[in-house]
Amino acid sequence: MLFRNPDAVQAYLDSLVEEGLTPCISAAIAYKGEVAAAFTACRKDDPMYNHFSADTRLNIGSVTKIITGALMAKLMESGRISVNDNVKKHLPEYPFDDNTVLQLLCHSTGTDSFCCNVPRPVWSDPKEKFVHDILATMKRTYAPGTQSCYFTYGYSLLMEIIERVSGMDYMEFANKNLLSPLGMTSSTFDTHDISPDNMIMPYNRDTGTYENSWTMRPTADSGLFTTAGDLLKFAGALQDAYHGRENPVFTPWQAHYLFRECTENKFHRTAAMWRKGEVDHYNFFSDFNSPEACGHTGYSGCMLCIDPTYEISVVILTNSCYLHHDWNNYRIISDRLLGALGI
């Protein structure tokens, strides 16, 4: 694939920084697993960004959920869990009798994040405390399966289920089954693995402050630190498997499962991602994406989109919580990147 006018795209991304939409951005696009173009831009007069590059790790927020959904698909290979299992089968202390693992994945359990406001876990907390606090404060606000209301804590419960079923720590399971086989050497859930010189924390434009996540425990809903290049390795493996090409992680049926709408077209969801569909209900997909495009955004100003029809993957990583306030920002930046991709 030919990438047209890369200088113009670079100037466009530089302008986003100059206008204050984000202090930094790392964006990349791939076709059939091959990187077509990659760009970075940052505040050139800010010492915080002196070392910013495509190798700088950023917290991708809820884009992490795609990784967790994919890990659940890998765990299903063990024959010890199905997404149609009742949650209580694997988490007996779960407070409700009528939820499935799939409903946790698709945010349709009957609980939303507003009724379960639990502080994020820190390393000094006992590991069990976070899950205990979530289960103790969960409340129902609608009938399960009738709505899809965002419940980010559901993915921390999925993390607990993955650990119990696999008998492995979540990070260990992720490294063994996904990150290491794909060569995602810049990806980690553990801030102890990262030098401050090679990571930028999420930035709040309204207060002019950066988050301090150094003491936070890893979570499966928003805890991954990574780069655009590493996320494209993940996307490329899914694309390869979907199209029957060899890859070190996924089978073709796993890939089709991860791209397949699984809510009877009610919520435009797969078991790991949001799906564009004929009408984009999320307003972050590119106008040029096919209806089969899937992806996720993150509160820290990040997005991954994988389009199996066109075999194109787009990663947008920033540290701007302000950019995330309007998801059309992802759509517009993606349009600019896809518009420059030719044959």
Can you tag this structure with a few keywords?
single chain, 343 residues, alpha+beta, Beta-lactamase, 3-stranded mixed sheet, 15% strand
Structural features, described:
With 343 residues, this protein is an alpha+beta fold. The chain has a domain at 2-56 and 183-253 and 274-342: Beta-lactamase, CATH 3.40.710.10. It has helices spanning 6-18, 64-75, 87-90, 101-105, 129-137, 154-166, 170-179, 228-242, 252-259, 321-324, 328-339, and strands spanning 2-3, 24-31, 34-42, 57-59, 199-200, 203-204, 209-210, 225-226, 274-275, 294-298, 302-307, 312-318, 341-342. The strands form four sheets. Strands 3-2-12-11-10-9 form a six-stranded antiparallel beta sheet, sandwiched between helices. Strands 5-4-8 form a three-stranded mixed beta sheet. It is globular and about 55 Å long.
Q: What would you say about this model in short?
A:
The strands form four sheets. Strands 3-2-12-11-10-9 form a six-stranded antiparallel sheet, with helices on both faces. Strands 5-4-8 form a three-stranded mixed sheet. The chain has a two-stranded antiparallel sheet with strand order 1-13. The radius of gyration is 19 Å and the shape is globular.
Helix amount, in percent? 25-40%
Cα radius of gyration in angstroms: 19 Å
Structural class: alpha+beta
Whole-number mean pLDDT: 95
* Order of H and E elements: EHEEEHHHHHHEEEEHHEEEEHHE
The low-pLDDT segments are none
Q: How many strand segments? A: 13
Main beta sheet, described?
Answer: 6 strands, antiparallel
Q: How far is it from the N-terminal to the C-terminal residue, by CA?
A: 5 Å
CATH superfamily heading of the domain at 2-56 and 183-253 and 274-342: DD-peptidase/beta-lactamase superfamily
DSSP strand (E) fraction?
15-25%
User: Rough shape?
Assistant: globular
Strand order of the largest sheet: 3-2-12-11-10-9
Proper CATH architecture of the domain at 2-56 and 183-253 and 274-342: 3-Layer(aba) Sandwich
Q: Please write the CATH class name of the domain at 2-56 and 183-253 and 274-342.
A: Alpha Beta
The count of helical stretches stands at: 11
